[in-house]
Specification:
alpha+beta, 5-stranded antiparallel beta sheet, 4 helices, 153 residues, elongated
Length: 153
Amino acid sequence: MTTHGPKTRAYPLPDGSAISTAAHKTLGELHAVQQKVGHVMAVVTAAAVRDILTGCDHDAPFDAAWVEVAETPDGTLFASGAYWTTAGERRTFIDDLGEADGGTGVFEMNEWTPYLDDTNREVWEPISERLADRDGCRVFRIDLAKAAALPLD
């Protein structure tokens, strides 16, 4: 006994060329948006460090050059609360500002840092330095001056 497929399609589709063109176009647009998210969130990260250290006084001096982030198993980044001064001294927001202000600042910073992930790694990784893994996580420090200089558009 011979089995035959249906004589008509279950649903109509555009031709293969149209589907391919739409898929490639959409994936290109998605990639561009993911890179833009990377740029914006790297700038936001630099701004967050400044805001934490200056109490949101944007004219106040501060001495942060790098901020530490760790990569979670799903590829997103989160701030550890550590940073480096321009002289190379590793410090923490909690040690400098206390548990309430420093901890709150890191908590608020981590609202944004998870948008830095595998989809925009080519934005944030070149402005970062890889550190030793810790607790099974890859650890980086992001250059704040380079992050702040990224274009938003």
